Amino acid sequence: MSIATLSSLDYFPIMGEKLDQSNTLPLDFSPSNKSLALVELGITTEFDSYVFGQLKDAGKQYGIGGYMEHRSIYGRSNVFATQEHDFRDIHLGIDIWAVAGHPVFAPLDGEIHSFQDNAGFGNYGPTIILQHRIEASTFYSLYGHLSLKDLQGIAIGQNIKKGDLLCHLGPFPENGDWPPHLHFQLMWDMHGLSGDFPGVCSHREKEKFLKICPDPNLIIGFQ
Asked: Which parts of the sequence belong to the M23ase beta-sheet core domain (predicted)?
């Protein structure tokens, strides 16, 4: 499937409504955002206050951003720790920040490829991955930082229809101990993985993952 085909499809809004400048604030977690240095990111309550303080001040319901963003927030967790030259701080999906419990809807028809609780501080927490077939092509969408209850009563291979209520934003700490948000990511290929897929990569791997993970805004359509 081509990017052109992916962008031409008709999607259901994954947050239940269109995300645009009237209700959504782009959030910057790159090193250029010097205000992050004033936040104790390892303390989730402080990180949460920062995120939702930004939204309150702007009068917005959602925060958004992060695709291929070089981020300075991953030092809060050893999930991303490795040798310095391979430290994973390039974000492969888009984050949508909103209050815990906010519903998330399937953007188009698919089936549940896999799911699991990727537990641990800074990890995905509860995660669902859908498989979508368009004509002769297949791609996948990942939904991370969910509520634990979303993993109950679902099954691999279960059909999901466009617009179905799929899951909810989880509260911390069960969502991987993050301020509530959806990590939404697209993959052309799962590379044999199940229930999990890298959501960040190192600078050395950026070109590799650009070929695997197309821009989720093709589906979200934020303007």
From this structure: 90-189
